[in-house]
Amino acid sequence: MITVSLCMIVKNEEDVIGRCLSSVASAVDEIIIVDTGSTDRTKEIAGSFVQRIYDFEWIDDFAAARNYAFGLATKDYILWLDADDVIQRDQLAAFVSLKETLDPSVDSVTMAYHLAFDEFGNVTSSVRRNRLVKRSNNFRWIGAVHEYLEVWGQIYNSDIAVTHSSLRHDSDRNINIYERRLAAGEQFSPRDLYYYANELLDHSKPEMATRYYEQFLATGKGWIEDNISACGKLADCYHQLGNEQLEFESALRSFRYDRPRPEFCCRLGYHFLNKQEFQTAIFWYNLATLFEPSEQQMGFRNEACSTWLPHLQLCLCYDRIGEYKLAYLHNERARRYRPKDRSILHNKSYLEGVLKNSESIGRGEAYDGK
């Protein structure tokens, strides 16, 4: 059985670090905590799990801090978590099983990272991360902000998930680091251009964000998942700026990099639905339901766009053109994912009435929740 070092960098995480460590401590063989300047009870709480906490002077560089933590590990593999992450009990059991069975020739194990959930507990946003890596390979973190772990070799894509459960977030931290780097005259890498544009969009600066997304795409050196995401982000920017044509063109632009993803199919379906071009909308929503993600896909996923959402919108489209049986069929498919959703239950009741007596109830009653 392999041994595992858990490596974490922390700062002022008193609200969450105990929860994180409690969720995983029993399954790892060593815990490395590197503190980058806490002024709250973070060290005190972490001290109940480890004998020693290491200090690292903060230099506006997340990769440097993570690499320092990795350098302190002594076990076969390194697991990394953030303080506001947790491993749920069922996932912890799967992790222990993985430790017992993992082929030591594996260089990195990817795990799903669940970022957001709906009111029914369904995952709405997720991404896959290289989460457990062989220590002897000396893999390095790269990037001062939005750092990534550069890995190679034999990759195992596990079914294990880590849950992000943030209670608070310093929304200005990353953009301030980027702006200090710009002020110092630093030349941004393509990855920096992309993530700085993301920060600008998150800070309600869509016009400025479009310039950096365009600079990023123009380099031709972006990771394919970032290229695809940038097209969606550009569409978001142009939506905020009220430019419907460029919003539409940005969505289509994503097809340069890969087959149509569900997120873009749903975006295009909504575009044509708003124009009451229902058959075209149906085409795009149907396409969204056919997408099967590859295990190699590491980018962010909006789970709704490949599960219940296109079916709910297909229900609406088919209702509008009087195809009530198809409307009911897709509403039922949406209900499999969200059995207690009020809009879906409304559609079920409405369409059952229509199918019993289609002449007594007019068109246009299906509801998409908006």
TrEMBL record:
Q: Which residues form the Glycosyltransferase 2-like domain?
A: 5-110
Q: Which residues form a coiled coil?
A: none
- Which Gene3D superfamilies is this protein grouped with? Spore Coat Polysaccharide Biosynthesis Protein SpsA, Chain A, Tetratricopeptide repeat domain
List, alphabetically, the InterPro entries matched.
Glyco_trans_2-like, Nucleotide-diphossugar_trans, TPR-like_helical_dom_sf
What would you give as a GO molecular function for this chain, any one?
glycosyltransferase activity
Q: Name one Pfam family in it.
A: Glycos_transf_2
> What are the EC numbers?
2.4.1.-
Q: Does the keyword Transcription apply?
A: no
Question: Which top-rank group of organisms is this from?
Answer: Bacteria
Keywords, sorted A to Z: Glycosyltransferase, Transferase
This chain's protein is named SPBc2 prophage-derived glycosyltransferase SunS
Q: Which gene encodes it?
A: sunS_4
